[in-house]
Amino acid sequence: MNRLWIENGTFVTMNEKAPVIKGHMVVENDRIIYLDEEPPNPLPEGAERLDGRGLLFMPGLINTHGHAAMSLLRGYSDDQNLQVWLEQKMWPMEGKYIDADTRWGTSLAVIEMLKSGTTTFVDMYDRMNIVAEVVEQSGIRGVLTRGVIGLCPSDVQTAKLEEAKSFARDWNGKADGRITTMMSPHAPYTCPPDYIERIIEAAHELNVPLHTHMSETAAEVQQNVNDYGCRPVEHLDKLGFFSRPSFVAHAVHLHDEEIALLAEKNVGVSHNPASNLKLASGIARVPDLIRAGVTVSLGTDSAASNNNLDLFDEIRLAALIHKGITGDPTVVPAYEALKLGTLNGARTVWQETQLGSLEVGKKADFIAIDTEQPHFYPQTEMVSHLVYAGSGRDVKHVWINGRQVVSGGECLLLDEAKIRAEAQQCFERLLER
Amino acid sequence: MNRLWIENGTFVTMNEKAPVIKGHMVVENDRIIYLDEEPPNPLPEGAERLDGRGLLFMPGLINTHGHAAMSLLRGYSDDQNLQVWLEQKMWPMEGKYIDADTRWGTSLAVIEMLKSGTTTFVDMYDRMNIVAEVVEQSGIRGVLTRGVIGLCPSDVQTAKLEEAKSFARDWNGKADGRITTMMSPHAPYTCPPDYIERIIEAAHELNVPLHTHMSETAAEVQQNVNDYGCRPVEHLDKLGFFSRPSFVAHAVHLHDEEIALLAEKNVGVSHNPASNLKLASGIARVPDLIRAGVTVSLGTDSAASNNNLDLFDEIRLAALIHKGITGDPTVVPAYEALKLGTLNGARTVWQETQLGSLEVGKKADFIAIDTEQPHFYPQTEMVSHLVYAGSGRDVKHVWINGRQVVSGGECLLLDEAKIRAEAQQCFERLLER
């Protein structure tokens, strides 16, 4: 039995009943078993002790949308619009990917996420067996899905669907439960309606949730109207997408009725502010979504459109941009922004009973921030400091499922230097291929 | 004679003729005397040698608007509108400031700026002698001004003006030339027109430039129209403000004619995106300002409205938000954004012949970034990586005026732990006072 006793730490719990606790936390195996101002009594026998002074402990961050392997394409196509970026730059390069590219691109993304405090990430890509292997080895938690594009002959559609189903079936619950799976049509504009229906049917059959890109750009919404006579939310609803647990990425361009329908159907929204700004897709109506009761969480999208995977950046952007856009400085206050990156992330991936806050009985997925830095002083409103001044580089230690995976800023289970070198070589070979 | 020879480094120069150089740089005393792909020939005698591998060298960042001492009020008033924040929270607390608060608040800000790669900062505050002493000691470069608010009896106005003049006269060119000074009415809405005229007259007399807050909120613009029958740009122009070298902070709410006038009068704009978003003031028309030929630079504003002083954050925000707002992903591309934080900062404070780029003959104000991190891989478009993935926490070493002031992330000339502790105590005493 493994026990860890953190003494004299500051805990930002994201539990509204006790948001900040200065005191003690005990972890036993993969669970938090104690969290209180007073030291545990009796003292936990045989526990490793950690001096928590100068550290702030909080739930690990949850990144609800991304494509990890695309980190090889970081900086490959900047300052261009989404369709050029996607169709002329990303897809041709991705078409040349081999297994090694997925492996080292994903590994590069995983070390960046772990070191910056992300303990759970959603990944939609292909060659997902490789992604799952990286998740298994790295100690991170993954919500994984083979995203399928249906703009292809029906035999290819079928092959992709079968691959996605096999992956979802084979890997669900694996890696000590750290991996869960979903089914994903890439987007309404890249999947014909009948193909989306087959994917939904497969999700029913496998009893897994659904994820997709939706309403990222005004152009794709207009195309949906032209092609199918309705906007994407109504379109997906008619196809039965929301009959299953589901969440969508982006959701930038929404009408009031669409927001109401997402709330009614309990559909989560992964807000990707940096990617949406960088590709000039627009700015999601986050305050309206929150007001309507939609579960909003945060995603980085890929490093090819962001271009980093530090979720603290998304938390700060979410807290800042909606104030500037709406003219209301009270929207998305600091605590709400931090919730988007933690508890709401857990809700989005249906794991809020296990993840997203520091509470007795929950999984021990948590991070330690080095607060002995000028930007955390004066040490008063620590939630505000995390949101408006914090960064993934402030993360010192990371635990997932009770196991320490980052110590002193270094990944314990992965060879960072090797991954950086392999990723560099993969990119250079992609250029030559 | 002090010489430093950096071998085998990557230099992002911000000199358009040679934007990236992989090679060698030699510093002699306070100047860059060599920068080339080839090693210097003859080799610089008696030079300290630095292995540049794994490091990226670039000009130090220039923060063109802030109030350093307000870092004591970081997190003291979040998620509120500017007038409440300013009049009900900031001014009452600032009214209780004593010398120690200015000293330790400024010191806290300076260590945060130095560690995150800012080598020159603009500061508008009071008790400026203390600020200047901190600048002198810390090794940073400061463009300092005693900002005056004129909403007070005329004898108090006169006393403040005399204090501002004395400061500007006494400290200009001090600290080995690292300090320059300006005169500053706080804002058109806090200074009666005749008081602004007296300040302008003093600037003429002392031959120093002018700085002010301008058009930060729609409300203050409207008040200007109500009180003086014109908008702030025209108002300041009529008062003769632009007859001297000058730059303004914020400039969020501008009409086309105002942008044209700022360009014509060669008035710089310090764009403060995080502060403007956080206080919901709005979003400056940066692409239009740049297109019109206005020199746009970046400021953090104070840690009470940001809430950090990492200029990399402002660089990234400047690159991201204007794309999202305009719907044009090509505006403020990565190189332009980095220029706002470096060369344009130097232009704004009239020091572009000395600062803002790595060039032979310029002052040796530069920083070294640790690029052996996942978010800088693959190592391809380093300017893009700096802007879209970089952070002040990636800064390893800092040199100002040829002198190393940060090494391995630690300030060499200031006692960081003492400053953090003193700042904490100052804030706690402010609450009690």
UniProtKB/TrEMBL annotation, chains A, B:
It holds the Pfam family Amidohydro_1. One of its GO terms (molecular function) is metal ion binding. Its EC number is 3.5.4.28, 3.5.4.31. Keywords: Hydrolase, Metal-binding, Zinc. Binds 1 zinc ion per subunit. Residues 58-405 form the Amidohydrolase-related domain. Zn(2+) binds at H65, H67, H213, D301. Coiled coil: none annotated. The keyword Hydrolase applies. The keyword Ubl conjugation does not apply. Its cofactor is Zn(2+). It catalyses: S-adenosyl-L-homocysteine + H2O + H(+) = S-inosyl-L-homocysteine + NH4(+); S-methyl-5'-thioadenosine + H2O + H(+) = S-methyl-5'-thioinosine + NH4(+). Substrate binds at E94, R146, H186, E216, D301. Catalyzes the deamination of 5-methylthioadenosine and S-adenosyl-L-homocysteine into 5-methylthioinosine and S-inosyl-L-homocysteine, respectively. Is also able to deaminate adenosine. Belongs to the metallo-dependent hydrolases superfamily. MTA/SAH deaminase family. This is 5-methylthioadenosine/S-adenosylhomocysteine deaminase. It comes from Paenibacillus nasutitermitis.
